[in-house]
Specification:
The chain is α+β, with helices and mostly antiparallel strands. It has one domain: Cytochrome p450, CATH 1.10.630.10. The protein has 22 helices and 12 strands. A 5-stranded mixed beta sheet has the order 1-2-8-5-3. Strand 6 and strand 7 form a beta hairpin. Helix 12 crosses helix 14, helix 16 crosses helix 19 and helix 16 packs parallel to helix 22. It is globular, with a radius of gyration of 25 Å.
Length: 503
């Protein structure tokens, strides 16, 4: 016998022992886990779903369906199993629900009032709080709610109009017939609006926030990084995340966020010391500072959360509305004529009363929310057992609930030709034919989108000013434009259109 060969075999056996020992522990623990979770297993047994393997569950499905393919997997599972489907990710039970009535029941229940595990990944950038959940979200939300109510938003109208006029002037300066991505102009304007309203900065201060320009351009890349980590399981292994360089990228974003939010706090603390801020005009930063209930870091986290979800999301929806109008000239003409009839063709300010009567614009706005979901999927964690499907299924404690908003908004059972852009689907007579539960762009319940009241008048005011000044044009068919998912849904190659001044 070769002595060297025996020695190599001995080394190999020594190397394999830790692996063998680990596998032995896993298989020894498996019967105990099943006994401990016997109720969860019993309740889940009646739910449809793909066959799960011991220990890894349906993990192999996730291995081959990462990133955007994860949404395609969810869609395929619903086609196969119906409105209810279970997926085991190792020992974690995920229940996907697409029945509209049960979605309302679940999202409005106090038994499902915590975010799901995917939101843990976002905490690296924005910490625990309003968006990511945890013990503080409810109180932190309550503190800033007065800055988002109708009374406060009405006070923001002057800023919305002033910045909308800036957008109109930017569009008028564009070379006629030249295609450009309107998002970059719009996001500059929505950022200014948010800074001067929710953050509470003056116009001059909002132009000189430390690091803001860099972060605005990087926001969508940050979303991409986080979404990839959520859907590519091996990136959740710390060593892999580090060795691929993504941890360094994440750390760089965190530093930029801290730089931005630190300057926000510095500017607002200076203003508050001056004593010229009354309660009615307080922004979110002022309210957090005045409450005395948050640490410095918590204020930074919540400020970043509310800042980016307001300015970036509003910019994408505004850009989508403008792009839809560019591709749908008949609808653009309807919207323009209605604006002239209600407000006039001059540069009159847009008021809340005006917006109530812009019905065609509202239909295009709603269709943009349907076509490009603000959140493709949302997750919740079941804290108390809850029964769905007319008593047929009971969701066990600890279950991760998955609500596929993007898929729900494209379900042909509720939407005629769902892959087409059709604002007329929001005509009153068509809305009456559908359950209100099939359209939930801002989610539902206690954890719904805080900025829903804020976003609508901002977006519509920007669109009114743009459409009054320029005619929008675009080439090709809007339905042929590729979509991209990075937490929210957007057009992969931007919001490209052309403008020319109205005569």
């Amino acid at each position: 016998m070769n002595v060297g060969s025996c020695h190599e075999q001995g080394i190999l056996v020594q190397m394999l022992w830790p692996v063998i020992y680990l596998l032995a522990l896993v298989f020894a623990y498996w019967p105990y886990w099943r006994w401990k979770n016997r109720r969860l297993l019993r309740l889940s047994a009646s739910m449809p779903g793909p066959r799960a393997l011991p220990i890894i569950g349906n993990g192999l499905l996730i291995v081959v369906n990462t990133g955007e393919k994860f949404l395609e997997l969810v869609e395929q599972l619903f086609r196969t199993y119906g409105d209810y489907c279970k997926i085991w990710l190792g020992p974690e039970l995920n229940i996907c629900v697409k029945n509209p009535d049960d979605i309302r029941l679940l999202l409005t229940s106090n038994k499902v009032n915590q975010k799901g595990p995917a939101y843990e990944i976002m905490k690296a950038a924005i910490g625990p709080g309003i968006l990511t959940g945890g013990p503080t979200w409810r109180n932190h939300r309550k503190i800033v709610t007065p800055s988002y109510n109708k009374r406060a938003v009405k006070l923001y109208s002057a800023v919305f109009n002033r910045e909308a006029e800036v957008l109109a002037n930017l569009l008028l300066k564009k070379q006629s017939g030249v295609t450009f991505n309107v998002y970059y102009d719009v996001v500059e304007i929505t950022t200014q609006c948010v800074c001067q309203t929710l953050i509470g900065l003056s116009k001059d201060d909002s132009r000189n926030v430390d690091g803001m320009s860099d972060l605005i351009l990087e926001t969508q890349n940050l979303y991409e990084l986080l979404f990839t980590k959520m859907t590519v399981w091996w990136l959740q292994i710390p060593f892999v995340y580090w060795i691929t360089g993504r941890k360094a990228t994440e750390n760089a974003y965190v530093k930029k966020i801290d730089r931005l939010t630190s300057d926000f706090l510095k500017k607002r603390r200076t203003a508050l010391k001056g004593g010229n801020v009354d309660e009615e005009s307080m922004g979110i930063v002022d309210r957090y500072i005045a409450s005395g209930e948050l640490t410095e870091q918590e204020i930074k986290w919540e400020t970043m959360t509310l800042f980016t979800t307001s300015q970036e999301a509003s910019a994408k929806i505004t850009s989508a509305v403008l792009l839809f109008l560019a591709h749908l000239p008949d609808w653009q003409e309807k919207v323009y004529k209605e604006i002239v009839e209600v407000i006039g063709s001059g540069r009159n300010d847009v008021t809340a009363e005006h917006l109530k009567h812009l019905h065609y614009l509202d239909m295009v706005y709603q269709e943009a929310l349907r076509y490009l979901s603000i959140a493709a999927l949302i997750q919740r964690t079941v804290e108390e057992e809850i029964t769905i499907n007319n008593g047929k299924f009971t969701l066990p404690i600890g279950t991760t609930l998955v609500i596929p908003i993007h898929d729900l908004h494209r379900d042909p059972r509720y939407w005629d030709e769902p892959l087409k852009v059709k604002p007329e689907r929001f005509l009153p007579e068509n809305v009456k034919k559908r359950s209100p539960n099939v359209f939930i762009p801002f989610s539902l319940g206690a954890m719904d989108c805080l900025g829903r009241v804020y976003a609508e008048p901002l977006i519509k005011t920007l669109v009114v000013w743009a459409v009054r000044e320029v005619q929008l044009e675009a080439e090709g068919c809007v339905e042929d434009l590729k979509l991209h998912v990075a937490i929210s849904v957007k057009f992969a190659n931007g919001y490209n259109l052309k403008v020319k001044p109205r005569i």
